[in-house]
Amino acid sequence: MTEALFNPKTCEFAEFDAESRRLLRATVDWFERKGKVRLLADSRDRVWYSDFLDFVKSEKVFAIFLTPAAQAAGDPDKRWDTARIAMMSKILGFYGMQYWYVWQVTILGLGPIWQSRNEAAKARAAAALDSGEIFAFGLSEQAHGADIYSTDMVLEPKARGGFTATGGKYYIGNGNAAAMVSVFGRRADKPIIDSADFMRQMTDEEYSGYLFFAADSRHKNYKLRRNVVDSQMYVAAFDLDKYPVAAEDILHTGREAFDAAMNTVNVGKFNLGFGAVGACEHAMYEAGTHAENRVLFGHRVTEFPQVRALLADSYARLIGMKLYSERAIDYMRSAGDDDRRYLLFNAIEKMSVTRHGQRLYEDVADVIAARGFENDMYFPMAMIGMFGLPRLEGTVHVNLALSLKFMPAYMFHPADAGLAALRYLPGAAIAPQGAVRAVSGALSWASRRAAAPASRAVPKLKAEFARATHAPIPTRRDGADDEFLFRQGPSKGLGKIRFADWRPVFEQYSHIPNVAVFLEQAQALQTLLAAATPTAEQQQDVDFLFALGELFSMVPYAQLILEQAAIEGTDPAVIDQLFDLFVREFSKHAVSLNSKPSATRAQQVRSLDLIRRPIADPERFEQVLGQVRALAGAYEMNP
């Protein structure tokens, strides 16, 4: 059962083609040859990882994995393949978040370039990758953070064409050595958008002054100020001082520059969750080995009740992170103009998987205690990264807000139209739980049964059903080039995206006790949204909406976990333990919603309907704990 986790010593990467397998194995072998002692020493001494970049250059790892087929000059091994990129992200996270970071930021830096219509810039990027170069994404600023409308990177037009750029950027990974830095700025001769108005529709003219351009970190007008973190990775603050920007350096202008920023984040930040998975897998091996082998007061640490609970939850949590992430790859790779569901699942990958990783680290720290601070452990090296991942560029808050845009379309399939009647039933919002549950269940059943005939008779409903009908998403580990990711188009219209019905996969697994309980909670949330819909004022109350978003985001997270569990044949005991955890966490978020000052009386009443007690099963618990104890000694990095 230990093979449920990634084990570098036994993994064969069989799902990939021969060249991908070779490079993934070569990467693992490079780290194992380097050894744990030197890995940890380099991290403590903040040594720039030139040895790793030399390996990347000699094997052309970044060039092969990060060059789209259109820029591959016929090389059949070069393509943008989200599945193998995700696997590399897990491997690098497994050995050190600093190695993951140089890869991750290169991906972000390439995003605006590969989306550009500037063929010369793309050719330069492809050649630089082939030479072993790294890239950077110059978006953030110290004063403005993610408020890119207010950028102080200002470009002055030159009389004979082109610009000079002056301003600073902050939190820019790889900014010390990037061959090309994709920099976001604005023209001095155009008006700046008032960021306080960002919720309204902007005109093309208002966007016209913004642009992305490519800069070279080795240019004399590129002033590297410092590394803003105390780490092996380099997170730069830099200034451009009248930096010359020629026409061939311009990547995007106007509204397209904003779209390129958002779409780059869609592509690049997806890998946050995979880095977290890799780090958590390594930590679980260390925790399992330590806890099983240490004896206190005549008992193994794994025999203490509180430790047993923490380990079982942590292991199930990690399996959930892996299952969700694997399934999210399929939605990313199958995306297209007619299926943009990946935008929700992508946001949850960045937000939920990383936060589950942080929670796992917190719980495992309580298991290994002082051992987690010793200088021969991987655990403390990755700890800062695990607390940082959910917070990179406001990941949690930004993605909670983003996920809420999808909530009405996701939670209410066209077949749920009948549930709207709840809000018109006198007293439904504050009626006893049993009565409301019976009414909402009847409305849902009747609505779903009548939906198909109604859709044939009502043209508008027929159109809605067509938009919410998607072909089954297959497992995608084929060697295709994910070229759609670089032509995602405008980053708007999210509310028009339609989702297939989320309930069937839960019903398929309802024989597992805690999946059935969680389904009851999800349906109760649906009832709350129908009977006690957030008011106009609440929809401007970010604190209230985040409490609602915590509940909503758990449903698609659980959906994709079950979809992947069906594909992999995941142990039902682990699924039950995971949903035992989900039931508890869903209840906690329901209490939080209930306590919000702005919650209406109806919302307070209906939020209590979401609280459930998970179904305990000692035999299932022992099965899961046995899998954790089997991790002891299953993997140890070469010394």
Automatic annotation (TrEMBL):
Coiled-coil region(s): none
Cellular component GO terms held in the UniProt record: plasma membrane
Keyword Flavoprotein attached: yes
Keyword Metal-binding tagged: no
Cofactor field: FAD
MF annotations from Gene Ontology: acyl-CoA dehydrogenase activity; flavin adenine dinucleotide binding
Record keywords: FAD, Flavoprotein
Ranges where the Acyl-CoA dehydrogenase/oxidase C-terminal domain occurs: 258-401
Pfam families: Acyl-CoA_dh_1
Family that this chain belongs to: Belongs to the acyl-CoA dehydrogenase family.
Protein name, per record: Acyl-CoA/acyl-ACP dehydrogenase
Taxonomic source organism: Nocardia uniformis
Lineage: Bacteria, Bacillati, Actinomycetota, Actinomycetes, Mycobacteriales
